Known about the structure:
The structure holds two protein chains of two kinds.
Chain A: E1 10-13, E2 21-24, H1 36-41, H2 45-53, E3 69-75, E4 88-93, E5 99-104, E6 108-114, E7 128-135, E8 140-142, E9 147-149, E10 155-158, E11 166-171, E12 176-189, E13 213-229, E14 239-242, E15 248-252, E16 256-261, E17 264-273, E18 286-291, E19 298-303, E20 308-312, E21 324-326, H3 339-343, E22 347-350, E23 356-360, E24 364-369, E25 378-381, H4 390-395, E26 405-407, E27 413-417, E28 422-427, E29 433-437, E30 453-455, E31 464-466, E32 478-481, E33 487-492, E34 495-501
Parallel strand pairs in A: 30-31
Antiparallel strand pairs in A: 1-2, 3-34, 4-5, 5-6, 6-7, 8-9, 10-11, 11-12, 12-13, 14-15, 15-16, 16-17, 18-19, 19-20, 20-21, 22-23, 23-24, 24-25, 26-27, 27-28, 28-29, 32-33, 33-34
Chain B: H1 20-40, H2 49-80, H3 89-92, H4 102-110, H5 122-127, H6 133-148, H7 155-166, H8 171-187, H9 214-220, H10 225-234, H11 244-256, H12 260-265, H13 273-278, H14 292-295, H15 302-318, H16 323-343, H17 359-366, H18 379-399
Helix pairs in contact in B: 1-2, 1-11, 2-9, 4-6, 7-10, 7-11, 8-16, 8-17, 9-11, 15-16, 15-18, 16-18
Amino acid sequence: MVNSPAIGCDVELPGCGNLPVVIRLGSFDRRNFLLPELEALLGGSGEAAGRGAADEAMAGVSGGNDFQWCFSQVKGAIDEDVAEADIISTVEFNYSGELLATGDKGGRVVIFQHEQESKNRPHLRGEYNVYSTFQSHEPEFDYLKSLEIEEKINKIRWLPQQNSAHFLLSTNDKTIKLWKISERDKRAEGYNLKDEEGRLRDPFRISSLRVPVLMPMDLMVEASPRRIFANAHTYHINSISVNSDHETYLSADDLRINLWHLEITDRSFNIVDIKPANMEELTEVITAAECHPHQCNVFVYSSSKGTIRLCDMRAAALCDRHSKFFEEPEDPSSRSFFSEIISSISDVKFSHSGRYMMTRDYLSVKVWDLNMENRPVETYQVHEYLRSKLCSLYENDCIFDKFECCWNGSDSAIMTGSYNNFFRMFDRNTRRDITLEASRESSKPRATLKPRKVSTGGKRKKDEISVDSLDFNKKILHTAWHPKENVIAVAATNNLYIFQDKIN
Amino acid sequence: MILKGQKRKLPPEDAAAQTPAEWEGQRQLVLHISLHKYQHGQELAEPSLRRSVLIANTLRRITLEASRAAAVAAAAERDGGTPAPPLRSKENAAPGVAAPHRRPAVTAHDGPPAAAVGDASPSPDQQQQPPPPHHHQHGGASGRHQAGVGAAPDACMEGDSEDWESMSSDPDFSLSAAISSILTSLECSIDGSHGGVPAPPPPPRTPLRSLENLAAAAAAAPEGEGAAKQQQQQQQGARGSCWGGWERAEESSRATDGCVELMRSSYLGDLALDDLFQDIDTSLLERELGVLGARGEGHPSGEELLRYLPSLSSSSSSSSATPSSLSFSSSASPFLSFNQSLWCLPSFSSFNPSTAPSTSSSSSFFSFSSPPLSSFPGPGLGLARDGLELDHLTEVLVES
């Protein structure tokens, strides 16, 4: 394009229909803000510039020309008997990608840190090693209601780093906790009133004063709970999301969404309440919620009926009335008894640009343009071969599995999990997709992952797996993509797999 | 595929390619699976409200489609004059159009018809042929009632008992609140709007029970057969729990009678106030359960209510029972009659007395789910009964 817009300017493009489309180009990287279609309008210079500029090739996910995924690490026990408490229930990179947090059903949080690449072998990315482990939530018993409260960590969300310490929010079904993870690598020596072993000295024997000196010590990582946000949710918390103002965050349960201030634990604002007056009339629950990455007044929440509501907190104190309502009309030809169940949205994620959002229902992933409510702009089938098996999946409860989805750093690719330890990645630019497997067999260091295929027809080709051979107990519900690099973390039951692109 | 349960040939799931018989077969299959899930939802390690809602919606959809199919079939047969297939024997037993006035009679016996289910289309109800279903359903209602009473290992009954048990509250408070609620609601028409949203405390569950969501707990309450059996013995007549009540009703009717119509008619619960008023351990009444509580219970058929009313009256007037039990039974009476009267009022289920500070227990009685029904044996008749019951209740209250 001849007149490439300068970074930071508003660009007005011929929009969809009668609405002009105004794009604000990002201040640090245009490629994070431009869609393939828009880049085409702009002459594709953005994408090319993006590709050329980055050290890592952000484009392309399929094992084509660009790069391939290879195994990096696996964390967790290998033996077949998996303790229930070790099942990973959430995975999340922090804003820089340096830290990777996992939560499990036993209420523990394990944080991995990315080691610096060694100078001797620059072609290898550093590894993720355990940085901190702590028990975030304990099982509780609600005596008033005679209910057990599980300690399973439902979600972990990092706060943007503001000082040397790291902060994250972790939540179980009822309680959200703010944890501070700080390092201590020095200690003071040479106290006046204590001797080296810590015993108090006899004051009368002190004849001189000295200034304590800070001496290095082995690195100690401490995790301490700084805030506990409790007793605000009657139903099970399914989502937490830190607002872009870095001061507030929202928490969502099945029927209500609350807005918290990070400093205030004894109060929260209820901003969405879909509980009907008569619980008999309950037909819809909230399944996920997220704050907009840039507009601190905007958030979305998805429902079990396949709808997404975008709300603006400036409009009213109670955001029961949505500002935008996203729903794709049901395809009458594919109606079945399970239409509603498979339309239930299990995860909603804004793109890093804030222009799009992605929703995951049982069989597909959909990318929505926030400006278009009547249908998604992209739909990707994750495991369409399961559509004929819905009855069986309903019987064994697999149809209720809640898969998550995630964007890559540049919003050019999306990833989600499936069964048989398969996970799928879709390239939004090239429209290519790939199915990979997280298994011990492909766990040799830097071994390239081989694309997998599920055969749907009668004839099963070599290396394909038939639908009936899929292991529905091995499901990948939680995945995370590094915000800047092509490193992905995939949780397969009790194992955490880390894959990265092969740097040639 | 890893399936639980026996192997069987599944009907094809492609709707377009299915014959009606296949579709019906699959519908039955999904129906049974759904009910099974209700019954065992309690045993899940992580019962979830989302799952319960989805199962409930699926059941509703199935029953609606079944009733639509039945309606179409019935209409076709009426037009064609051909005898109904056995599967639809109930609805087609009586030739001719279902008289509207009979429909309420049937539903009065059986509880709210499927129309109670929110926005169920009226056509299925229209097509519902009452009798012999009338008689049958009455018998069925009795059967359900009897099943609910006492020892029958009916999951829904057990679930009721364990929920009911959890409804422990201050009896006097609940009683007065209940009375005021009745009077309030009788005076002003129920228009579906109610005061505040009551606090939705979760229905208490048996101790050390696995985690549940609140409403789901209530919904799933009836479903735990194993543990529920114990609960039933411990706290009989206990009832509680929320919106799951109608699901329970649905499953119970399913369990006892495989007829679609029957299920539909008792969709919102024949659950029984029956065993509710059989043995009442009022010390376990919990005020909190309130709205979530009995609201979802569904309501008993008219016959059953009448059957119990005299017994309750006599027991309440002559009993030297504890005040709590007395008050409970007293409040039960107005509830019953109130319930009846509310059947003819729209959107009863959304009623929630806003005046009583502790709306829970009172609303638990009243929101005892009369779904927004449009049918009723006869408003005059019901209200007359109500008046009598109310008077009696007032007397009892004064005495107590």
